[in-house]
Amino acid sequence: MRVLIVVTHLLGAGHLTRAAALARAFAREGHETTLVSGGSPSRPTGLDRITFVQLPPVRTIGTDFKALLDEDGAPVHNFRLAERRILLLQTLRAARPDVIITELFPFGRRVLADEFMTLINEARRLSPRPLILCSIRDILASPSKPGRIEETHARVLESYDAVLVHGDPRIVPLEATWPVDESIRPLIRYTGYVDESPEPLPSGARHGILVSGGSSAASLPLYRAAIAAAKEITDKPWRILIGRGVADSDFAALHDSAPAHVTVERARPDFRTLLAQAELSISQAGYNTVVDLLRSGVRSILVPFEAGHETEQRLRAERLKALGLAEIVPETDLSPRHLTEAVRLTLSRSPLLPPHINLDGARQSVAIAESLALARPALHRPNDWSPVEQALARARDHGCPIRVWWRDDDAAADTPQLDRLLSLSRRAEASVALAVIPHRLEASLGKRLQSEDTAFALVHGWSHANHAPEGHKKAEFGTHRPVATMAAEAEQALRRAREKLGGTLLPVFVPPWNRISPELVRHLPSSGISALSTFNDRKAAFPVEGLLQVNAHLDPIDWHGTRSLADPAFIIASLAAAIDRRVTGKSDREEPIGLLTHHLIHDNVIWSFCEELMIQLGHWEVPLMRPDQAFSGRTGSQPWLDAL
Question: What is the CA radius of gyration of the chain?
Answer without folding.
Answer: 28
